[in-house]
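Summary of Year 1 activities. Much of the first year was spent building the evaluation harness for sequence design. The harness presents a backbone, in tokenized form, and records the residue chosen at every position. We chose the following record to illustrate the format because it has been used consistently in internal testing since the harness was completed.
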């Protein structure tokens, strides 16, 4: 049975070029970048070269890039580090953030911060009026993700950052799903803090970065040897950092070719599902969405049942509840779009990547309708129309 991987929003395979660049740093080039001998200096040079690669892709300065252990750490550093100097005040996040931001905001709330969760419209786009009105005199930071990991909707980040600045607050965006899939330029966006993660862009797991705009006051959340300009202590993950640099450069170089191709496959897949299966609701914005994201909800069936049956046919997809470690709760993102809980249970996410082909999309469109049909026959709620 052929395996078709349609879950690139969860993680991506490591690109061969990325792996090749990383390998020497596990064995021959194993120096600690803080040491002054040759191996140390070579490791330092590799880390700084990767920093320059990451900075160049984002349109940032090299000193504005802090390497972290991934998207979750970057998000936590942005929120906790960005707020550490202030007395507890007010914080704004969107209602559809990844748990890395959502739970960080809830933890801050337990420490005395007031938090507003800004609603989104039916397409998963933040309600800009509600956002603007939520700011208070003591609002210190707003965090709205660039692109949503479940339904793919892309937020008006530049406008949201501008509003935050007018109100005197810092602006952070979790761009973990966007970097590598869409052009991301920190200057154009005007953000203060931006998170990214290696394993979503054909780099390794356990490496990420936080862009910290020059002049932004940030406190570390890890204390130790003062690495990364005192912002992230801990011996640098040199192979991971090297891999992230190459992954960023490779993704940026391929973007003009990959993006339109994925958008075409995405639209074909979405239209094919809508045509072949009755009572399907597509999720997320029709056009303002990630190039590879298709999300929908199928009435009268469970997302997990579809996922497991598709898996048995070789197709790897995700239900809307993913990213929360196999949770069977309906996704807070899908609920925030206004779906009823019973419909949210039938949600599914397909996230296409570079290596997917039209034949794979065609094969999916053939395999999926009979699976839904069978599951619906078993559903007590389903009455065939
Ligand atoms: C939007 C978003 N933010 C943050 C993360 C967490 O990133 P990492 O897995 O690198 O910790 C993810 C990954 O699931 C994500 O999709």
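For this record, the design step produced the sequence shown next.
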């Amino acid at each position: 049975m052929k395996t078709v991987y349609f879950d690139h929003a969860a993680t991506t395979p490591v690109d061969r070029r990325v792996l090749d660049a990383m390998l020497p740093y596990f064995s021959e080039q194993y120096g600690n970048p803080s040491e002054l001998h040759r191996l140390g200096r070579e490791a330092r040079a590799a880390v700084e070269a990767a920093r320059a690669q990451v900075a160049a892709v984002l349109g940032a300065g090299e000193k504005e890039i802090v390497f972290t252990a991934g998207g979750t750490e970057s998000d936590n550093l942005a929120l906790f580090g960005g707020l550490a100097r202030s007395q507890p005040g007010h914080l704004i996040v969107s209602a559809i953030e990844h748990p890395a931001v959502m739970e960080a905001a809830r933890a801050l709330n337990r420490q005395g911060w007031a938090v507003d969760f800004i609603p989104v419209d039916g397409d998963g786009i933040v309600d800009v009026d509600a956002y603007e009105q939520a700011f208070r005199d003591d609002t210190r930071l707003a965090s709205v993700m660039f692109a949503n990991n479940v339904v793919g909707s892309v937020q008006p980040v530049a406008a949201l950052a501008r509003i935050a600045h007018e109100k005197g607050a810092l602006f952070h965006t979790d761009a973990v799903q966007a970097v590598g899939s869409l052009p991301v330029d920190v200057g154009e966006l005007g953000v203060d803090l931006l998170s990214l993660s290696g394993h979503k862009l054909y780099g390794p797991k356990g490496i990420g970065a936080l862009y910290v705009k020059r002049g932004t006051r940030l406190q570390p959340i890890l204390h130790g040897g003062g690495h990364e300009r005192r912002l992230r202590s801990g011996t640098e993950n040199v192979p991971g950092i090297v891999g992230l640099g190459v992954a960023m450069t490779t993704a940026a170089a391929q973007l003009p070719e990959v993006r339109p191709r994925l958008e075409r496959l995405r639209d074909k897949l979405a239209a094919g599902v809508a045509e072949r299966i009755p009572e399907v609701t597509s999720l997320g914005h029709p056009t303002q969405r990630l190039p590879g994201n298709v999300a929908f909800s199928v009435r009268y069936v469970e997302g997990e049942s579809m996922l497991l049956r598709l898996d048995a046919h070789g197709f790897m997809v995700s239900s809307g509840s993913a990213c929360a470690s196999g949770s069977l709760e309906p996704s807070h993102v899908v609920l925030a779009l206004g779906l009823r809980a019973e419909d949210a249970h039938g949600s599914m996410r397909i996230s296409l990547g570079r290596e997917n082909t039209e034949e794979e999309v065609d094969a999916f469109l053939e395999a999926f309708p009979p699976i839904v049909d069978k599951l619906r026959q078993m559903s007590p709620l389903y009455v065939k129309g």
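The pocket of pyridoxal-5'-phosphate is lined by residues 70-72, 75, 98, 100, 145, 149, 174, 176-177, 197, 199, 208, 323 (CB under 6 Å). Quantitative recovery figures across the full test set are reported in Table 2.
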